[in-house]
């Protein structure tokens, strides 16, 4: 169990840091090459880059409550390594949690170190798809992470049910085999008794 926890720990830490670094590097490039409100069409007006600053949660939700989301994300990141990590049982759930943590870390870095100030910084958003909310790589990682985590949990439940079913079938087969052996033994005893009687 300890070995498994260490393995998942390395995986979660690596994915978390990779996601956060990619998110911050891309945001830095966007800030260096775009002005707030500037639009860069990628696929017409349906998919484009549009630089905005978000004081709320993922996908521009819950604005004007920056410190609340900063606190929640910091608590979650700590919980990943203190609570969730020892309970991870598959690569699927480990990667899912790591993507969520990496996305949270990427956004919390913005909240801690970007304007207008420490702990209340605004998150850099720049990906615009249709009329959907504007988001960033960290938000995408969180969404994908949730999906992967759910898939992992479902696969684990399915595996547990199959294992339980397999054990039940094995037990039934063993019982049937014992009964067959007992019947065969009984028949031999009866045959021996008949021979002695003759």
From TrEMBL:
Pathway: Protein modification; lipoprotein biosynthesis (signal peptide cleavage). GO terms for biological process: proteolysis. The chain crosses the membrane at residues 65-85, 92-109, 129-155. Its main location: membrane. Keywords: Aspartyl protease, Cell membrane, Hydrolase, Membrane, Protease, Transmembrane, Transmembrane helix. GO terms for cellular component: plasma membrane. Residues 174-184 have a biased composition (Low complexity). Residues 159-198 are annotated as: Disordered. Its EC number is 3.4.23.36. The keyword Ribosomal protein does not apply. It catalyses: Release of signal peptides from bacterial membrane prolipoproteins. Hydrolyzes -Xaa-Yaa-Zaa-|-(S,diacylglyceryl)Cys-, in which Xaa is hydrophobic (preferably Leu), and Yaa (Ala or Ser) and Zaa (Gly or Ala) have small, neutral side chains. It is found in: Cell membrane. The active site is at 125, 139. Signal peptide: none annotated. This protein specifically catalyzes the removal of signal peptides from prolipoproteins. This is Lipoprotein signal peptidase.
């Amino acid at each position: 169990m300890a070995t498994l926890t260490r393995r998942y720990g390395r995986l979660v830490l690596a994915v978390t840091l990779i996601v956060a670094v990619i998110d911050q590097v891309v945001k830095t490039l966007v800030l260096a090459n775009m002005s707030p409100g500037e639009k860069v069409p990628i696929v017409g007006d349906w998919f484009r880059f549009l630089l905005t600053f978000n004081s709320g949660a993922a996908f521009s939700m819950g604005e004007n409550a920056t410190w609340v989301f900063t606190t929640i994300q910091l608590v979650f990141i700590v919980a990943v390594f203190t609570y969730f990590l020892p309970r991870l049982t598959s690569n699927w759930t480990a990667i899912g949690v790591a993507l969520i943590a990496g996305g949270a870390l990427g956004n919390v870095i913005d909240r801690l170190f970007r304007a207008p100030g420490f702990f209340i910084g605004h998150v850099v958003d720049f990906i615009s798809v249709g009329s959907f909310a504007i988001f960033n790589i960290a938000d995408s990682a969180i969404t994908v992470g949730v999906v992967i985590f759910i898939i992992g949990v479902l696969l684990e439940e399915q595996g547990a049910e199959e294992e339980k079913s397999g054990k039940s079938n094995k037990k039934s087969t063993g019982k049937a085999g014992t009964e067959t052996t007992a019947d065969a033994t009984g028949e031999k005893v009866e045959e021996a008794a008949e021979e002695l009687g003759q």
